[in-house]
Amino acid sequence: MRHVREEDLQELSLLDRESFPEEPYPYFVLRQMFDVYPDHLLVLDDGTALMGYVLCGTAPDLSRSWVLGLGITPDERGQGFGRLLMEEALRRLRGLGVREVVLTVAPANKTAILLYENLGFVGEPTLHENYFGPGADRLLMRLRLSRPGFG
Ligand SMILES: CC(C)(COP(=O)(O)OP(=O)(O)OC[C@H]1O[C@@H](n2cnc3c(N)ncnc32)[C@H](O)[C@@H]1OP(=O)(O)O)[C@@H](O)C(=O)NCCC(=O)NCCS
């Protein structure tokens, strides 16, 4: 696991397309995410290819960080890599002093919801209808982070 590098961006874009075939980030958005959040874009690299990524966006006052993307290449799913990336991202956010982590997930994405619940995220009771436009409802999930050494 390592930080993304500029030369990874084309491959990262392909990985994102594999992860979200219907709604990938346009390349320019990934490029700008890299520009804005270079320290919060982690990739899993097996030495020959990228297997997964996680991207977080953190408020300057550290009150909140959003998980903006998490994807594992289809051939490598179900082996614990998604959990590994999320655990490392959360560990780093906790170390920075971020107090809350928020994410959105499609209500039908049961695998992702289970992963987030197992990490301690709690879904809001009400679905946000049309959150990402018409018909694109999303569940918001939140996790309170405690500071290291404070339970
Ligand atoms: C969601 C995703 C990142 C999970 O990554 P992964 O590496 O396959 O998941 P892991 O092997 O780390 O498993 C994590 C948890 O998911 C659950 N899970 C994994 N595969 C599953 C499956 N096929 N069916 C049901 N649950 C599954 C397990 O309960 C596991 O929980 P545990 O580790 O607490 O026991 C991956 O499936 C993916 O890239 N999906 C497409 C993009 C996406 O939906 N991203 C999330 C958007 S919010």
From TrEMBL:
A Pfam family per the record: Acetyltransf_1
Ordered alphabetically, the record's keywords are: Acyltransferase, Transferase
GO MF, one annotated term = acyltransferase activity, transferring groups other than amino-acyl groups
What superkingdom heads the lineage? Bacteria
Ranges for domain N-acetyltransferase come to 1-146
List the CDD domains hit by this protein, alphabetically: NAT_SF
Q: Which PANTHER family match?
A: ACETYLTRANSFERASE
Q: What is this protein called?
A: GNAT family N-acetyltransferase
Q: What species was this sequence derived from?
A: Streptomyces aquilus
Upper lineage ranks? Bacteria, Bacillati, Actinomycetota, Actinomycetes, Kitasatosporales
